[in-house]
Amino acid sequence: MWLNDFYHSLNPIAFTLGPFQVRWYGIAYLAGFVCAGLVIARVAKRWKLDLSTDDVLSVMIDIAVGIIVGARIFYVVFYGAGYYLEHPLEIFALNQGGMSFHGGLVGAIVGGTIACKRWKLSVLTVADLAAIGAPIGLFFGRCANFVNGELWGKETSLPWGVMFPSGGAVYRHPSQLYEALLEGVVLFCVLFALSRRRPPRPQGTFIGTFLMLYGVFRFLIEFVRLPDAQLGYLLGTGWLTMGQVLSLPLVAAGIVVLVLASRHDRPQVGHSTPRRRRLQLGRDTQNLGWAVLRLSLLWLPVMFGARTAQKCSIGRFLAARGIKMLYRTAVVLDAHQLFNQYCSSLNIIKFIYINVQL
Fold this sequence. Notes:
The chain is mainly alpha-helical. The protein has 13 helices and 2 strands; from the N terminus they run αββαααααααααααα. A two-stranded antiparallel ribbon has the order 1-2. The chain is globular. The N and C termini lie far apart (75 Å).
């Protein structure tokens, strides 16, 4: 059992920094997000979309938050079996594991949609790009499950069986690696190969393919993977698991999305509306920092005036002056028409300096 020997040579803890332990599970999440972001940026460039690095970074941040929150909520609701009702504080104990892919998918869709609406990006195109990068994160995540010795499969006599510490003194299917192979490597290769065509395939093609193939792969792997102990097999079937129940809607949704994508044949686009200059996380970071510093100084006369307004007219003057400057600054930052009119040739700090004078 060569894989068993390899498994027992692994340590779930990657390294230790003083009292802190860095686990492979956390590194896998980080590596998944970073690699997926790189793939998304590369494909967007090949498709000649008007997406900047800041656009990709902004979307990835919201997607990451959505994945973590959604994955945890789904696990608590669908896999908790009432445990978290008795121990509500353990809902936040993410270091103890307990994440659901299906919840992470819902969270990613919600977080990505919010980001797209905020930055005026095409939701369908971003969904297609995210679908191409998602299998990389799945690959790293399933490998981390293997290192942690969790989510193992049924007993087997195959030469790659593994004896997991929590699975008894029997060799079991390394179902985590099966999922890493199918949901990660195979799914990524299919989607990446489809993305090579130019012009790119219609909107919805990639997210539809991802949903359909993931649902099929997950449904099949569940036959060799043991269900969660607190749930067992559903409906007394002896084979139906919660993972299969949640995967069937993905297959149906994927087929529907593919049909609609073929029928509407919408081209891939970056921004849903004409692109406008806005505060960005990358090249405008320095200018934004100076702007925030200047805006923070505007609060000083307001605070001083609020404390002395009852004592002297200077306090009332400073408070009124500060509030007026803050209002003008808010209008400058939020009114897109003015932002477009004046920012075509000026950077952020010059624009604020011209429109807001102490």
